[in-house]
Amino acid sequence: ESPRAIRHPIIMPDLEPKGATAVRYRKPGGKDDRAELNSPNEISKSAVPKSMTARSTILAFAGCAVALVLLKWATSSPPKTYCHVDDPDNDIDITAWQPPDDPRPIPPGSWGSVLTTPAKLEKLRDAGKLPVLESGVPKVIHQTWPSRDTSGVAAHYRKWSASWGACHPDWLHVLWDDCDIRRLFAKHLPDFLPVYDAYPNPVQRADIFRCLVLKEYGGLYADMDYECTGGVDGPTGLNPPQDSPQGACKVFIVNSPDPEHDGVLQNAFMASVPEHPYWTAVFDLAVERRSTLSGRIWGEIPIQNTGPGLVSDAYTMLSEGEVKTAVCGLNNTEFSGQALGQAPNAIHRNAGSWCACRFPAINWACWKKCKEKKKTYVPSMYRDLTRYKRSIDKGEKLSDKDQATWDQYGHLFQSYYDKYGEFEDI
Fold first, then answer.
1. What is the DSSP string of 232-250?
2. Are the C-beta atoms of 412 and 385 separated by less than 8 Å?
């Protein structure tokens, strides 16, 4: 007998005397329970076994509870936070964050020796004391952490954050916490504040923050897992020669190492002049995507709604012209290194902290990332090289694109193999 046959009664008016209707409940053992009713249209409570009534009640309550939890999750706002006073003198000394063996000590007393506050940034900007590159990008590095209590910042994050002071000691290094960020939206983009508050995932608020801070102040935004290895203000970086084709660049975003998944651009490293119209297009698209049900609940929330998918699609949707020409992609082998595990100017260490999200199994991108974290991390390029090497060993022909990648990076395979051992696909 199927569960459906057990749970639902079968009305049999033709098999009973006139004036009564029998309700038969099939049981797995084959016996029938019969009950006579006073009216053909009435089923008495006594005709329903108590066990079934109890089970139906429990299931109904459970269904309602699940629905309420999902509704609360989908519409919840971040918990209220009692924010600190925005004190411009609340600097954090990061010279102690540098490893003792770092060959590039941060000069004491330099701008790069401290993580300063948004209030100090505002004060310097209003006084016209922020230096800028020839490209127009202010010499400001923006990073974010949940609070100014950095006692819980892991050693590797400290090292990577301090590397920016070592590379660029004459740049202002600003740390934005959650209170600072909400104040930023309340002051400069109040109409967007309900959208910001409604994001269910903290990483979404961190994602959209970087777009607003670059729109309002300009400068460079870098994730806390980004390490400066050589400097970013050179001719192939944020300061191209003004008489070159790249001289028209006003927004600099590193090219994605995984365009099929993230989009053409990667939002972990972005720089801009203040008030560039590209960021208006980004926020217009963010509002549109937040207004869809799939975006609120089941979509690839961090990637497409606020993350690299958002900045990539905002760029590709721009009409050809001056605004789009001014948005330039930086070479990811020089300014990301995520695929290779090394880069001459800046490297994305890809700690993947954004995966600390709600219901990661629902969010495919996050679930996949979390699953990968259970394995020993290896550079993504090693995965590709492993696949190419196996094909070559089998005598299979690589595609032109894969062959070109192997020709360029195949020499790294053995060094990766010596370091990481045999790579197994997840």
1. S-STTTT---TTSGGGG--
2. yes
Give the pLDDT confidence score for residue 263 in this predicted structure: 85
How far apart are alpha carbons 408 and 174 in whole angstroms? 38
Among 313, 250, 236, which residue's Cα sits nearest to residue 282?
Answer: 313
Helices (H), 90-198: 118-126, 155-167, 178-188, 193-198
Taken as a whole, the chain contains a residue count of 426
pTM of the model: 0.69
Could you give the CA distance from residue 153 to residue 159 in angstroms, rounded to a whole number?
10
CA-to-CA distance for 66 and 74, rounded, in angstroms? 12
| Rg from Cα positions in the chain | 29
Helix (H) or strand (E) holding 220: strand 219-222
| Beta-carbon contacts of residue 109 (< 8 Å; ≥ 6 apart) | none
Q: Is the pLDDT of residue 219 over 50?
A: yes
Separation of alpha carbons 192 and 198, rounded Å: 10
Q: What is the pLDDT of residues 82-110, one digit of tens each?
A: 466 666 678 999 999 999 888 899 999 99
Q: How far apart are CA 410 and CA 403, in angstroms?
A: 9
334 forms beta bridges with none
Contact 111, 170 (CB under 8 A): yes
Which residue, among 352, 196, 314, 219, has the nearest Cα to 273 in the 3D structure? 219
**Do 227 and 166 form a contact (C-beta atoms < 8 A)?**
no
pLDDT at residue 172 in the model: 98
Rama region for 45: left / alpha / beta (φ>0; ψ in -120 to 50; rest): alpha
d(CA 220, CA 137): 8
Pairing assessment for the beta strands 219-222 and 265-272 based on DSSP bridges: antiparallel
328 contacts 251 by C-beta, under 8 angstroms: yes
Q: In this structure, are residues 205 and 192 in contact, taking their beta carbons and an 8 Å threshold? A: no
